[in-house]
UniProtKB/TrEMBL annotation:
It comes from Nocardioides daedukensis. GO terms for molecular function: electron transfer activity; heme binding; metal ion binding. SUPFAM superfamilies: P-loop containing nucleoside triphosphate hydrolases. Residues 1-20 are annotated as: Disordered. The keyword Iron applies. Keywords: Heme, Iron, Metal-binding. This is Cytochrome c domain-containing protein.
């Protein structure tokens, strides 16, 4: 097959040629946009799921939907080592520019508030980098969103931005990827601001995406967060959607898969969107002609697995210290032991008791707390319920058993 015409795109956050299996989420978000624009009450949205299920891709698709409706939009990626003020200010600056408000004075006022919000943490002797503002020429607006209390400031900032959007009959949507990496104070402030905005009916929403434990992070910050957001779990694709993700791009290039090949592809990918793209690319390059057969899949699978081992799994494994790697391997061994014993079935996320991990390592659970906590912070594992842990990356246990 011609590699130049290969339609599959296994990139981080890169939109696949066919966004299959997400029609329900896209349609629901269109309803949210329309309701908010009309002043109807609506909750902000949180997408959760494992790595590789397409959360970032879907987040970008939702943002595109908002842009098509002429909303102001901005996006940021949360990082554990960075506060919320500066990246959020950049995102909101972009959103204000997209709104196209006709009154320059009103726009400059809100931009001045954004600038004050961004620079609040910079002291009088701060370095130039700490005094940075997101390209805003408007003068600082003192006494607004600059109290130093992130919760008060964010409420004031969202209120001013919501008022500007309401003037032109539009809305503002802030998209936050890796939302679980926000600091506790920033999470609390974000929840409080969303709560205030929803009560006032202003057209501002937050759309977050993060790992499966994100709802627990939000709930620990504000007890009302479970009623504040609409949670959508993004999972692997059904067999029908996975077949469409493979077949539609191939048909656009005058090629196709046999039914057996599609079945084999679903078996090796598990329906995870990133794996579908990775295996699809490898199979296309290896297949001699169309239709692509199950034999072609078998020949190309080792190449796809090797690429995933280096770029998808290996890069994450390398971030762990030797002690943390032992913990990860013990998690994989514990899952195998559970499956082999027959006494307990693995749940759909493959979680294992922390006590089983300690047993596999021959150590007391308390002594493993530092390694577990470090892996949680690095986003390699998560805890869906007390006393159990799971990998944030699908098929990671299999990788550890085969390669690490």
């Amino acid at each position: 097959m011609d590699p130049i015409r290969n339609p599959y795109a296994p990139g981080a956050g890169q939109r696949p040629p066919e966004l299959a299996g997400r029609d329900e989420q896209l349609a629901a978000f269109d309803v949210v946009l329309e309701r908010v624009a009309r002043g109807r009450p609506e909750r902000s949205l949180v997408l959760t799921g494992l790595r590789g299920v397409g959360k970032t891709v879907l987040l970008n698709a939702l943002r595109s939907s908002a842009v098509r409706r002429h909303w102001g939009t901005g996006k940021l990626e949360a990082r554990p080592d960075q506060g919320l003020r500066r990246p959020l200010s950049s995102a909101l600056h972009q959103a204000i520019r997209e709104l196209g408000h006709p009154q320059e004075d009103d726009v400059d006022h809100v931009l001045g508030v954004i600038r004050s919000f961004a620079q609040r943490d910079a002291g009088p002797n701060a370095r130039l980098r700490e005094q940075w503002n997101p390209g805003i020429d408007a003068p600082l607006v003192k006494g607004r969103a600059d109290s130093g209390d992130i919760e008060i400031d964010l409420v004031e900032l969202f209120t001013d931005i919501g008022g500007l959007a309401a003037d032109v009959g539009k809305g503002v949507a802030v998209f936050i990827d890796e939302m679980q990496d926000l600091g506790p104070d920033d999470v609390s402030a974000l929840c409080a601001a969303c709560h205030e905005i929803s009560q006032s009916g202003l057209p501002v929403i937050v759309v977050g995406a993060g790992l499966p434990h994100l709802p627990a992070v939000l709930s620990a910050s504000k007890s009302y967060s479970e009623r504040l957001f609409r949670y959508q779990r993004i999972d692997r694709l059904s067999r029908e959607a996975a077949d469409r993700a493979l077949s539609a791009p191939a048909e656009d290039e005058d090629a196709c898969f046999t039914e057996d090949a599609l079945g084999q592809m679903y078996a090796v990918t598990g329906g995870y969107p990133y794996f579908i793209q990775a295996y699809g690319k490898a199979v296309w390059d290896q297949a001699p002609r169309s239709p692509i057969t199950a034999e072609d899949v078998a020949v190309a699978a080792p190449e796809a697995e090797e690429e995933l081992a280096v770029g998808f799994f290996g890069s994450r494994f390398e971030r762990a210290t030797p002690g943390e790697r032992d913990y990860l391997r013990a998690m994989a061994d514990a899952a195998i032991a559970i499956a082999a014993s027959g006494d307990e079935e693995l749940d759909d996320i493959g979680s294992v008791p922390t006590s089983d991990v300690a047993t596999a390592l021959g150590k007391k659970p308390q002594s493993l707390s530092p390694a577990r906590d470090a892996l949680l912070k690095k986003g390699l594992i998560y805890s869906g319920e007390r006393g159990r842990i799971a990998f944030t990356v699908p098929h990671f246990g299999r990788y550890l058993r085969d390669h690490a």
